[in-house]
Specification:
By secondary structure, the protein is mainly alpha-helical. It has helices at 3-13, 15-46, 60-65, 73-83, 89-107, 109-115, 122-144, 164-177, 180-193; strands spanning 48-52, 55-58. The N and C termini lie far apart (58 Å). It comes from Desulfobacter latus.
Amino acid sequence: MREDVKKSWENFLNPETLRSNLIVVSVFLSAFEILKECIIERPKEMYTNGFDENGLIIDEKYKSLVLSLNKSPLYASLEWFKKNGVIDQADIETFTEIKNCRNALAHELPNFITEGIKSDPIPNFTSIIELLGKIEKWWVFNFEVAINPDLEDVEVDENEIIPGRLITLQLLTDIALGPEEKSEYYYKEFIRRNIL
């Protein structure tokens, strides 16, 4: 048997390797979807005027001020964030690298499982967290805090904001990819605090 074929079968049949590869891919794809949803939904929320029986009522300004920036709603939203000083061109390029890694993993999953990592998604987790943090902290500080009457006279430090999506992503990576002690911590703490 050729060495590359042997290695491929070994990767596929080894429960630890297969399990690990599938977990990395699924967490990465989930993290990408959380980031993508945030990028598209936040500008749309900005131009939402309530809802009716058909769903959200999106103001026409959304088309002219966001969707007009690029053919892709995703990249149009990124450009809108850039135009508003939330991110810069380097962030858009980083997002493109993340998206390319996502596409490679999603479209070449069988190869990833048997042949191992060609485009290692692990370094992209930091980039996803940083980009999501920039967008969500800006959103919370400039919109959610700004319109909350309970926070009218409260000094809020944007750097101390920890948005829900960021917490979700951090928990996801800690639990699924972290060392055993860290990955079990949240569950054990949850059980400890919720015992009757």
